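Sample intake sheet
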Amino acid sequence: MCIGLIALSFMLGAQGGQFVLVPLLGALLAFLWYNRYPARIFLGDSLTLCVGAAIACAAIISTPSFKMFGFFLFVPMIVEFVLKARGRFRAENYSTLLPDGRLLYQGRIESLTHFITRTGRYREWQVVSILWGAESLLVAVLLVGARLLATG
């Protein structure tokens, strides 16, 4: 999301939120570097909510069109919220680890990770890759859309 919003800010000339996004991206890349698979630190709600708030603030303080793109980047998180609300916020995202290292989840779908692990037998890193891939695809679509709006 940070990379996508930074690219969008350059495309749209909306650099108001870059003073939040660029340092945030640096911090997240450092966290990822020192916490790459297999992860040793669980970032939890504290970091997740802080990052989400920083990204939202960067979108809000920028131009109206930038706010719209920022909203669309949050769609997976909104879907996750709706799924968690469906389970009254009691769902855990844990799956059963099978002997071959793949994950199995057979309960009610109350998270995006539940949906992914119900559609196939994936390893943890594959589930993360699918989620990153979905967000990256959304960023790519928005970048193409922003380019078309800017030129058209």
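Comment: Residues 124-151 form the longest helix (28 residues). The chain has a mean pLDDT of 89.
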